[in-house]
Amino acid sequence: MRETWLTNGSVRLFAVEDGEGPALVFLHGGLANHQAVLPLVQPLTDRYRVITPDLRGSGRSWSSEPMTFDRLADDILQLLDHLAVENAFIGGVSSGSGTAVHFVLRHPERVHGLVVVKPVYAGSDIGYTRGQAAAFAAMDSVASRASVEGIDVLRQLFARLPDGIRQRAWQIASRFDAGSVVATSRFIASGAQPFSSSRELQSIRVPTLLVRGDDAQHPAEVSDVYAASITDCTVVPPTGVDTVRTIRDFCDAGLTALGSTRRKARGGRR
């Protein structure tokens, strides 16, 4: 795996890449880092150049500055430019899918296809469900203490996880920067959304794969917004499918369609 560092303003950003071929950028959720998404995309490195950044305010991309989706999307754009990637599939899980969606809305010309796994955000006109708002406020009430009490406060957030998952979560979180944890937690709890309304989602024209959510933080009704709004959207259930294989098949199909379009364009120029 190849490590990359780059600077965007006052923030030094970290990313990892592996494999060769068409680029696939995949983004983790809140209070996590790139390691959280590797089980979904590392198996694809036999065919794809898989790029997994630590989003600003997460992992080794330390930042205690206030966060916005514009800044997060601009970080991804700079990363693509830094790595000389003209176009990529882009996806994300949980809150990371919000950054992926915002990037597609801002820079559709750089995207082959979009992968949304268990989305959190339904848009500014809907906002969080009551259950989401309560869950993220509870998270923030703990995480926001990190700048005073240290990273150990995050153990409270993992206390109810199964043993193996709890140990892995803490192994990742124990290396976090306290100021970054506070900035990320406040951003998620703020209710900021990556798009305004379902009408904005309708403007997405790239092929999209949606893995539906099915829990309090990733409610099914949020996934319904994407499924109903994005024209070229393939929807799969959250369980009972091989998500890795589904992502691979989606990207493979996107490349095939893209190749066909390019061949037709060349034929038309003759």
Describe the structure.
It is a single chain. The chain is of the alpha/beta class and 270 residues long. It has a single domain, classed as Rossmann fold (3-Layer(aba) Sandwich), CATH 3.40.50. It has eleven helices and eight strands. An eight-stranded mixed beta sheet has the order 1-2-4-3-5-6-7-8, sandwiched between helices. Helix 3 links the parallel strand 5 (88-93) and strand 6. The longest helix is centred in the last third of the chain and has 27 residues, at 243-269. The mean pLDDT is 94.
CATH H-tier superfamily: Alpha/Beta hydrolase fold, catalytic domain
Model regions low in confidence, pLDDT < 50 over at least 5 residues: none
Count every helix, treating DSSP H or I runs of 4 or more residues as helices: 11
Secondary-structure class = alpha/beta
For this structure, what is the CATH class?
Alpha Beta
User: What's the alpha carbon Rg, rounded to whole Å?
Assistant: 18 Å
Indicate the CATH topology: Rossmann fold
Q: In the residues, how many domains can be counted?
A: 1
Tell me the span between the first and last alpha carbons.
Answer: 43 Å
